[in-house]
Predict the structure of SMP-30/gluconolactonase/LRE family protein.
Amino acid sequence: MKNAQLLIKSTCQLGESILWDNRNGGIYWVDILGKQIFKHKFGSGQTSIWNLDDYVSKIVLNDRHGFILGMQGMLASWEEATNIVKPIIDIPHENGQIRTNDGGLDPEGNLWIGTMHMDAIPGRGKLYCYKDQKLHVMLDAVSIPNGIVWSGKLPYTYFIDTFTNEIRRYDFTKDTNETAHYDVLVKIPSEYGSPDGMCIGPDGNLWVAHWGGYGVYCWDIHTGKLLDIISVDAPHVTSCIFGGPDNKDLFISTAKVGLHEQQLLKYPNSGSVFHYKIS
C-alpha cells in the first residue's frame, strides 16, 4: 500500500484547487466554503492565509507574479502581496444560487471554469471557456464540474462531472454545448468513491482525487485501466497536483464537509494537505 503523509495540518471545510507555483516553490489551495486562499512554502513550514469576500474555488497562475481566481459571479485577478481582487469578467450566478467550482488552463492558455448549484442540483451548472476576452459556454448542463486537463495539444479535453462518476474525453473541435462529442474513458466503480479533481502526472496519465475514495487514483490515459492508488487518511480527497524540484511530489487537498462526527473523530486530518513522493 502506498500512503500519502500529512504535510500541512488544516481544517478546511472544502479544500480544493491545489496548485504548485514553480516561481516561488509555493503550494496554494483554497477553502471554497471558508472563502480563503492558502499558501505553504514547501520545506519551510510557513503557511499564509488570505480572507476573501466571496466563494473562491479555483486558483491558477497568471503572469510572472499574479494569479487568476474562479469566484462566485466572476473571474478575477489576485495579487498575493496586497490581497487585491480585480474582476475580469462576470459569470452568471442566479442571485447567489450558482458558484464556480473546478477549472484549468488549456494548452493555448485559455481558462476553463465550471459552475454548479450551491445545493448540487443536477444539470444547473455550465462549463465555460474564457477566450478572446469572452466567456463561451462549452457544456450547457453539468452538475458538479471537476477535473479538467489536457495531455498536450488540443483537441482532446479530459473532463469530470462528478455526478456521472465518469472520466470523459471530449473533442470540442467537433461541436459544442450539449451535443459535444465524447468517449467515456473510465466509469468509476462505486467502491472507489467519486472522481473529483484531476491532473496529468509525470508519467502522462490521469491522477484523480476521489471524493469518498480515500485516495488519489492513477488511470491510464489511453486505456482507462487503473494503474495505482495513493492512499490518503481522509475520506474526501478533492484535488491533486504534481510539483516540487523534480515534479515528483504529489500534493493532495481534502475536505471536512459531508463527514459526520464519528468520521471526523476517526479521520481528524480531514481538511488538511497531504504529500506523496513518487519514485
User: Anything to note?
Assistant: The CA atoms of residues 148 and 159 lie 4 Å apart. The radius of gyration is 17 Å. Residues 2-277 form a domain with the Neuraminidase fold (CATH 2.120.10.30). Residues 261-266 form the longest helix (6 residues).
